[in-house]
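Request: Not sure, any thoughts?
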Amino acid sequence: MDQQLTIVKVGGKVLEDPETLNVFLDDFTALPGAKILVHGGGRSATTMAGRLGIETKMVEGRRVTDAAMLEVVTMVYGGLVNKSVVAGLQARGINAFGVTGADFNLIKAHKRTGAEIDYGFVGDVDEVNADVLATLVKQEIVPVVAPLTHDGHGNLLNTNADTIASSLAVSFAQTFDTSLVYCFEKPGVLINPEDESTVIPYLNRELFEMYRDEGIIAEGMVPKLENGFNSLTNGVLEVVVTNVEGLSIPGRGTTIGE
């Protein structure tokens, strides 16, 4: 197991601002070795829903996906965002291939049940079938994965992009030396979300739990980091949370460790 693979999940405002997105795509293109890109796009989905007169409902930072919103996220994630990123990579000489979890039977999931809140058509990952993607990666093709899965019965499900990135990283860790990078608008995990100079350079599980219990790490950062720790437990070599600049400057951001 000696082939290096970097899985980058990009989300937040990076996808919304054309200038920042262009810098990100330049830096992603420059990453050495094999790579996979997983993207979010929640802000774009919210904007499109508003244009269509569809209300966006969020609970604890998570999107409630009713039937109408499922149509929106399918259009935005699987179409607009995915193909725009693919086109941007093609323009940089990267042979990119856009997929959802339904393509190649890549990611099967089940509709989330048992929670106090009904999130609608939201999927929790059951299995990842990475063999086809591995074949593409070995041919120097870069998969660009949208945060949609399927249940095996013809239904698409909206699935957290951080979870998809972690699930892919764990699956590929069986055959590649795999690193996982969460890239968003902040320079790392912050003690004070309003002060970008308060980056936590290294975070193990004990520190994470302390900061979480104190409310310093909260909302969407909690599941992101839980996914990161799960990746390390299951064979991923390195997990980093950073911004666009951190892709091109090693050591920037927050490194997650056991």
